Amino acid sequence: MYIEIGNITFYISFSFAVFLAVAANTSVGRTYLLSLICAFLHEGVHVFFLKKCGCRKILLKFSFGGIKMQTDGFSLLSYKNTVLCTVSAPIVNIITGALFYCLFFLFRKEVFYIFAVINLITGAVNLLPLPFLDGGRTLAALLAVKYEEHEIRKICDILAVTSLVFLGGVFAVTLFMKKYVLFLMFFFFYCTLGYINDKLT
To answer: Do residues 56 and 25 make contact, with C-beta atoms less than 8 angstroms apart?
Structure first.
């Protein structure tokens, strides 16, 4: 189903609607819903700054796997605006996570703690220098001011592999701690498969 509001098109898949309806009243479903709110916040910040920088055509896709934004606006941005539009979203996630952790500390509501953790992890992971994440796009834009394209690719590849090793180590630690295993496992495999797909294409 497509819904157009101004220059923004929303696509809501059938699988997304069904899963949300079925899982909404379960503990797993509530965590999933909080993850969606976090993802919507993340993509919403991207949309806000992209529109501020002149981008007009934006598609937000809601699927079982989460929320994904598609636009050709990034290719039209200056290096400075690319950094602004990419790094702003994970920073907002981190600030939101810190705010909700403070709310948890004050009110001891578990939902505040879960939402804080989801935002902090989402923000931190998106700052990793992987080509398809905000950190990778930001790094490439910053390096493009000084380096040639082949040098940028080499630097980004080294930092991307280092990031995957680091993320894999964090995931391994959570296996022993038995906390946030599924959440970090998702991010680890998502980042790994995304990097492999980026290299193949």
So the answer is: no
Digit-coded pLDDT (tens) for 38-92: 999 999 999 999 999 888 889 999 887 678 888 877 777 888 999 999 999 999 9
Count of Cβ atoms closer than 10 Å to residue 121 Cβ:
21
CB-count burial class (<10 Å; 0-12, 13-18, 19+) for 184: buried
pLDDT digits (tens, 9 = 90+) for 11-26: 988 877 777 777 667 7
User: C-alpha 182: how far from its chain's center?
Assistant: 16
Tell me the backbone φ, ψ of residue 46, rounded to 5 degrees.
Answer: -55, -50
Q: How far out from the chain centre does Cα 16 lie?
A: 18
CB-facing half-sphere around the CA of 48: CA atoms within 13 A: 11
3-class secondary structure, 38: helix
